[in-house]
What we know:
This protein is an alpha/beta fold and about 1000 residues long.
Amino acid sequence: MSLHSQGAAAEIPPYISEYAYIDTKPSMPLEANIEVKREPIVVETKQPEPKPDVKPKAESTAPSAVECIRVVEDFGHKTFVISGTRVHFPFQPYPSQLGMMNHMIRALNSAQNTMIESPTGSGKSLALLCAVLAWRQSFEARHRQTLANVRQTIRRYSEHNSMAFVRQMLAAKHDPPFAEVPVSKEDSKHVDTPLSADSGNTSDESPAEALGQIIPGSHPLVKPDSEQNVIIDTTIASPVPNPDSEVAPSADASPVLLLNLALSSMRETVQYILDLSEATPPDGLSAADMDELRDYIKNAAQVKAIPRIYFGTRTHKQVSQLVNELRQKTPYRLRSAVLGSRAQTCINNRVKKSGSIDEECRKLVDDSLCKPHRIYRKLLTHKKLQRQGDLEIWDLEDIESLGRESSSCPYFAARELSATADLVFCPYNYILDPGVRGSTGVELEGNVVILDEAHNVENAARDSGSLEITDEQLHVVAMECRMMVDRGKLIKDHETVGTLAFTLINWLRDSDHPYEYLEFDTQTAVWPRSGESLDDLLERILLSPLFVFQLHVSFSAIEGYIKEVRSRKERQRRNDDDDDDYNLYKKGQPMEEDEEDSRHLSTGSMRLLEQLLRVLGHLAPDSPFRQDYRVACIRKSKYQPMPDDAATSEPKRKPRKRRRIGPGLATSDCVNVLAFWALNPGVVFSEIAAKARTIVLTSGTLSPLDSYASELQVKFSTTLEANHVIDSQRFRALTVECGTSGELLEGKYKNVDLLSFQDDVGTAIAEIVSRSPDGMLVFVPSYSLLAKLMARWKVTECLSEIEVHKRVFIEPQGGSKEEFDRLLTTYRNSLSNNRLPGCQPALRGAIMFAVYRGKVSEGIDFSDYYCRTVVNIGIPYPAFKDVKVILKRQYNDDRSTPNRNNPSQGVLLNGSKWYDIQAFRAINQALGRCLRHKMDWGVIIMLESRFAQRWNVERLSKWVRQYMSVYRTFDEAKMDLDAFYKTRIQEDIDAGIDNNLVNDILPACSSLDLASPTTVAAHTVAIL
């Protein structure tokens, strides 16, 4: 139904009334809104006439939460103009989606960082995609208009003033001129809409395609519009000389030549005009022209390029979900790419069968022995990947399939395609890790970074800034360096690296280290420590500033040598493609005549040295992050863990006995590790923030938000906590303080081993299981506690009582992804296969016992009947005896007060607050496994007395904390719980497809207690 109904005033739809007001003025395509300050030839567009019946909107202002949102009709579907940006949305948005889009666009407009927490199931990903792509489209339109106007102003200046200054300007220049918009093909085409080099537009694109990103006819929601305004510049431009030429233009250079030179150095030309005319505008220009030139100089950093969007999320699976959202639900079409791992995209069978895909791939590529890599550029021009091709928006599975068809490497093709893409999807470690970022070509300067599922970003950033090196890795480096010295290649440089490797090996294997953190199979010594500073340690292990400088020099020399060897190999391979020796190449055998000259340090060793040098740079005397690191020497016992029964069908080998660390343990039975631990995630994140135009962190479980700005050392100008799209009547959140024994359900470390606690928890879960329909999840703090509970409940037969109502599944500790996927499939099949007609609960449900921070709690969708109840036991604080946790808490305590000697140093939350936040963030993540869409429903139950305390409830996500009810015992909660289940089950039955069957069943069930879905289901079977 049209928004502008005939015979009535336009009314605000109820679903957006909280956020929006209606603008009934007719709209035209965004491209038609570009105006240039000149006398153009304009092909006029016939605009739709406003309907006379529509009453003008009364004077009003938008709510403060959303400064400018209006709804217009465009291409036959609703389009929202949000903070000046036209956003095409595929269907009716939730109020929270409007709020998210407005919040994000305002941050992008002001080039500020922001955080958005929006519960799972609220359409967060779709809202973010539509908002950022609409903003980029709008930015590109403004970008083109600004540059066109400025260039036209320079032309008008040249018509009334001498351009002789160009000679002096170019003659005085020492650096290459500012040429963010060189006079390009557009001038020769007489179209004054220059393109940024970063936008990747080519000469064969139409102006609408180059600008729009929404291609008319490419999406059912966007109809072709052939009557768009086309602004044509009638100015004729001459071919452009190279402004970087050392030869200045001659005195008799033509005015056209001087004009083109001025346009190719536009920023300097504009600055000259402004400096020359500070008091009054020059001939031919107005005061408004001068203001526009000043704005151009002020915003030159933003004008010089159209930002690329990097959209990162936690896993490859979530990346795939984002690509599908873009492809299937949005009208936006632009150059996109996906970065993935070798394991996902490799098509070389030899590599895939190897123990380490990454290392084998690097080895074959280094030796030019991978045929798919040699021809990977064939994929770059594949017709399906081109604009408006079948796979214009592609996923890793798509490009992997095309790679197999053409025998071309998808991994390297994807990397190269990302260099020219407007939108790049990737797991967010590709953005956070400096090494991965460099190797995959991720460029953050001036671009937009969106990190979805960002609740793990803090830990991921610390890990990216840290480094751990084993003595075995150092041994490989030492042996490779000795080989190169023996062959006479860069002897001094390889000796420098080899000497360091041998020194570190000997130090790590020294048995006299003062280990202060002692565990069963691990000993750890940490620096700085009493009696030895970090500088003293680095000096002792050959990592003094002077030696690190020499290491940098040697690394650069070795890196250059390796590039030369690889280039020589490539030239030889091309020359020998037609020779008989090529037969040996195809069999994977390197040519014997080149064996001596082609050896060099392996890629793995070079990456290790690169990572070490990066960390040592943070430990340099002048580094601001010098105090943010701890150096550790770790000795671990070698042992083979017991294989999981479900993990393998191979005959079990006798496991190697786990050995206690001690003086009697031989060096060969230990792994020695040199660790550089970053305790401040800002070490990595501050570099990202300094480069990126805008950073957007978003997740369903960011609370508490203030901790992120503190830990990441980045200013977030705005934050948003969105409400859930689910009506509050469709879920319950409750806390049970006491068990059946009357004792508090307090899952602290000192209580979990008490049999009374274990029995109370088991009894409560058995009661819940007998009432809750379909699927159910139970989360506990650790695998060890889960094992204790299962063992106890077997003895008390509580587990058997649970199994009467639901099939029991237990999340495995460790194991492969494939094994977990099979378990998850079995869980879901056990529910779907037991469903009854008429949307009734399953005959027998299923229950999954899992661990906070485990596989089940992260990114798994348990919508609808896959999870109707989530039960949470305890509060999952990190292991308080873990060395890294101890050091982090101490570090935060030291940084919790302002530093008088360094006022610019940020203040952190103290160690206790940081420790608490880690626990509650894990709980919030587990709570988000159910309630996945607007019509979903479910119950959240906290079997933990500490959630009766308001300060603990306040740490939960906003959508949960405001509805939490507290009950002294589970008996008190039964009535509320039973009524809720009964109402929701009845609604599902009423909405069932087989209404006749439902009518037959309900009268027969009228005397039954609908709070017991198992009873209803059994009685239904009897009727059938």
